[in-house]
Amino acid sequence: MTIRLLPSLPVALACAALAGPAAAAEWDMPTPYGDSVFHTQNIQQFAEDVAEATDGGLEITVHSAGSLFAHPEIKDSVRRGLAPIGEVLMSRLANEDPIFAVDSIPFLASSYEESRALWEASRPMVEEKLAAQGLTLLYAVPWPGQSIYTQEPVESTEDLEGASFRAYNAATERLAQLMGAVPTQIETGDIPTAFATGRVDAMITSPSTGVSSQAWDFTSHYTDTQAWLPKNMVIVNTSMLESLPEDQREAIMEAAAEAETRGWEMSRAETETKMATLEENGMTISAPSETLSEQLSEIGATMTEEWLEDAGAEGAAVVEAYEENL
Ligand code: PCA
23-95+113-143+230-277 in CATH: which number? Predict the structure, then answer.
């Protein structure tokens, strides 16, 4: 007697037909920032849009606040396919290529209009650099402008000399050094503890991060420099994207384009509302003094020069395209 281990072809086909449509794909999505942050809320909406457009065929589960992978590991986890999709601060990849840091130079692009022009000028190159690593850029959204948080009023960079200054990328480290402060890298979730334990005395970040970290608990002055708008970007593992059925791929690309438009609007709206929250909680909001403005724009010029030197012909091409877009 022969024992048949495999069902005959007709039986296999019948089983497949009974199983109905292909099982839903489930994607885990690591992100660095907390649930109350507008970037995360935008991503939640993106995930809902994808689920809806695919009739539940592609479910994206968002793991916020570095709960699945810590911020420094997110890009590599997506590249290696440990997570199909994730979010990172673009300028955190500056050590791989200076192009990723173009949005973190003080006063190169400090309004939403300039920031948009810079993004249009730099996007193709960012996409190319990511593609070389098997990654596809889905979209990018800026944080509101970066402003200074301190205990005491800041009239000039001399007031920050020797201060421990919280940094979140290479550019904020360099900025701290150029102001005579001492940079320390701290993730957003660790900001309150870093101030409470005296590891840092000052920081530069958006009103959004000021509010999500309750900056009024450990600083009292917000100096409204709005010096640059660094972006978060959502990236996907290209081969995992390509392994999806075409309609699901299209659903992702469409939801991503909507998330980009929505995210830029959310960011712009946050600048005012979150500054108001800082004020309601007792922080003093002030415009930078003339001296501070001059000093910071000089530092911006230095950092632009350094970046251009670093980024070579590619950097020059991006800045040229940016100026044409303005
Ligand atoms: N918030 C993030 C990046 C820029 C921002 O506004 C942070 O402070 O780390």
Answer: 3.40.190.170
Main-chain dihedrals φ then ψ at residue 123, nearest 5 degrees: -55, -45
- Please give the number of the atom of ligand 1 that sits closest to the Cα of 187: 9
Question: How far is ligand 1, taken at its centre, from the CA of residue 164, in Å?
Answer: 17
Is CATH 3.40.190.170 what the domain over 147-227+283-325 is classified as, yes or no? yes
State if residue 271 touches ligand 1 by the CB under 6 angstroms criterion: no
- Are 131 and 235 in contact by the 8 Å Cβ rule? The answer is no
Show me where the domains of the chain are located: 23-95+113-143+230-277, 147-227+283-325
Does ligand 1 have an atom closer than 6 angstroms to the CB of 209?
yes
> What mean pLDDT, rounded, does the chain reach?
95
Give distance in angstroms: CA of 211 to centre of ligand 1.
Answer: 11
| DSSP H or E run through 126 | helix 112-131
Do the domains 23-95+113-143+230-277 and 147-227+283-325 sit in the same CATH topology, yes or no? yes
Tokens of 66: 């570095």
DSSP code at position 151:
S
pLDDT digits (tens, 9 = 90+) for 126-159: 999 999 999 999 999 999 999 999 999 999 999 9
Q: What is the pTM of this model?
A: 0.93
